[in-house]
Amino acid sequence: MNCFEVLGRIDGYLDDRLRPEDAEALRDHLAKCSACAEEAEAARDLRRRAARLQRSIDPSRDLWPGIATEIAAGMVVRGRFGRRWLTAAAAVVLVAGSMVVAYLVGRGQAVTTVENRQKIETSPSAVVRASFDDLGVDDYVVTRNVLLGALEARRENLSPETLDVLMENLKVIDDAMGKIAEALGEEPGNEFLMKQLAAAYRRQIDLLEVAVRLPAEA
Amino acid sequence: METIATFPTDTAQPPVVMTAVKCSDPGESGLVERAAAGDVEAFEELYRANVGRVYALCLRMSGDPSLAEELAQEAFVRAWRKLGTFRGASAFSTWLHRVTVNVVLGHQRSATRREARVRAVGDDLPHDVAGRQPGTAESIDLERAISSLPDGARTVFVLHDVEGFRHREISRLAGIAVGTSKAQLHRARKLLRKALIS
């Protein structure tokens, strides 16, 4: 076995994947050739170091909002459900939920006095409420109201900025849910729509749960 | 297109085996089934569980943090679109890894056609690795050296020595001969040794 052949088979040798006779020939060569022996040792060392590198690295930002938007856009492109506004509504729900939760969790502790704020309330339309009858999430309105009540009780501890962001996005999700529910009225058995509506429900509840756990902004 | 001497193929090499690490999660198959049926929330859970490894692969293969984020995003979008083809023969994370490699290599091929890439060695060190993430001085030095490799050598080194792919798999994915893959790996190691010593 010459040097060229040895260099091409070093990894097979290090992985113990060579035929016994080839491995033996390679070992013989390494014993006589210091240059190839050095190459083999360097390869072993680099492989060892490479194996210790981190397997997982977090990106500097959450990539999910962009992915969710593209996924929703792809549904329109594939033409499965026809109406652009509908998938756009679904995308709004997905993106709004992720981004607002990230905003709320990551925001700083603003020092603000809350005065004359309007009562915290939003309300799903009757169509949305009716749509949930088929989704097995009958407690949606109850859960939502409980969380809104908890949020109302804490409103003095939250800055106007936080409350504004929260209310605006609850309304965005409400509006999107309304559109999805209207479409469900036209196609009651549409599984995609039902999943989107259930997903929107979970987004809104998730958002409220994060909001009621926010530390006081004093 | 860079030219490089190729090594002879290893005749005793076993059939192609995808050797990226498997992550067997009992809940994973359920999530994959739900995502394949159109459940976006299930797919988001798969994203959360895998984004770190996907981004790390994109970062090391591209050497550019911003580009790596774009590529990682594209990898997940493509995975979503191809979920129907996932048969469960391997772990989802393994399949996703392969999708990611294809996305990055596809980008590199099109980028090569569009423009010759000009990089100042060390300028585009993956700062995620050097800065925000914990790591030993040794691993940071190696990350820096990897990022300074020429594209072809870096790709093969990352796939072979970091991710555990074999030359035949790299050959198929990258559209190069097995001998070329071996030669690029040899070249990468030589350059890395030089960079780590200096």
Structure description:
The complex is a heterodimer of chains A (about 220) and B (about 200). Chain A is an all-alpha fold and about 220 residues long. Chain A has two domains: about 5-50, no CATH class; about 80-210, no CATH class. Chain A is about 70% helix and about 0% strand. Chain A is built from nine helices and no strands. Chain A has helices at about 5-15, 20-30, 35-50, 65-80, 85-105, 125-130, 140-155, 160-185, 190-210. The model of chain A is unreliable at about 75-85 and about 105-120 (pLDDT under 50). With about 200 residues, chain B is an all-alpha fold. Chain B folds into two domains: about 20-120, Rna Polymerase Sigma Factor, Chain: A, CATH 1.10.1740.10; about 135-200, Winged helix-like DNA-binding domain superfamily/Winged helix DNA-binding domain (Arc Repressor Mutant, subunit A, Orthogonal Bundle), CATH 1.10.10.10. Chain B is about 65% helix and about 0% strand. Chain B is built from nine helices and no strands. The radius of gyration of chain B is 17 Å and the shape is globular. Chain B starts with about 25 loop residues before the first helix and ends with a helix. Chains A and B meet through helix 1, helix 3, helix 4, helix 5 and helix 9 of A and helix 2, helix 3, helix 5, helix 6 and helix 7 of B.
Provide tags for this entry:
heterodimer; A: 218 residues; mainly alpha; 2 domains; 9 helices; B: 198 residues; Rna Polymerase Sigma Factor, Chain: A; Arc Repressor Mutant, subunit A; 66% helix; globular
The largest contact between protein chains, plus residue counts on each side, is:
A-B, 45 and 54 residues
Number of domains of chain A: 2
The chain-level structural class of chain B is: mainly alpha
How would you describe the shape of chain B? globular
Distance, first to last CA of chain B: 28 Å
Could you give the count of β-strands of chain A? 0
